[in-house]
What does this fold into?
Amino acid sequence: MSTYKTNGDKILQAVIADEQLINFYGYNPDNFRSISEALDSEIAVIQAIAQIINRNEQKATEREIYNEVSNFLKANI
It folds into this structure.
C-alpha cells in the first residue's frame, strides 16, 4: 500500500494512473510519487497536472491557474 505525503500527492496519483494518459504519453506513474517530482518532469502533461494541483492547494484562483497552465502548455507543447 502506498503512502502519500499530502492530499495533492494522492490526487496526482489518481489522475496520472489513467490508462489512456499512460498509453498516450508513455510514462510510468510510479516515477512521480509527489507533486515536487511531477513538477520536475520532462513530460509537459505531468508538469501541467502537478501545477494545477499545486496551485489549487496554494489557494490560487481558477483564473490564475488557467492562465499559468495555459501559458506553460503554449510554451512547451
About this structure: The two ends are 35 Å apart (CA to CA). Residues 7-76 form one domain. The mean pLDDT is 94.
